[in-house]
Amino acid sequence: MALYQETPYDYINTALELAVKAHTGQVDKGNGLPYILHPLTVASRVRTPEQKAAAILHDTLEDTNLTPDDFRRAGIPERVIELVEILTDPKDGDFTSYINRVASDFDATVVKHADLEDNLSPKRGRGLNDKIRSKVYTRLEILEKKYPELKYM
Description:
With 153 residues, this protein is mainly alpha-helical. The protein has helices spanning 11-23, 37-44, 49-57, 60-63, 68-74, 78-87, 95-103, 106-120, 130-146. Helix 1 packs parallel to helix 3 (49-57), helix 3 (49-57) packs across helix 8 (106-120) and helix 7 runs parallel beside helix 9 (130-146).
């Protein structure tokens, strides 16, 4: 007897396994807790299965050795991989191109909005300086301007 019944959304469990392994040993700079709690919090704030899997994986391409091909081999759907790629900040300093790329896709925008809200959360204890806090608020404003409904999600 299986411990659970297979569902069309088992890729969420796969995303979780990948992210937990990839983020093992990483600590949230703000509160010293395991970093994986941040992607899990972001995933709890979004709605669709694709958004949840993308939220769980949203920092893996930036902060770990995982690649899109690793996701494919694990059975992550192409749509989720696309979202994670859109959400990955190229770190080239081109803020405008990055946030506009995110804003071009509603699902990516929903995940990024949840990510930014969690980044501002006092629960993470991040103690963001004024410059970083201003940058986060600017990104939220850009996303909410394109999708006003995000303010109420």
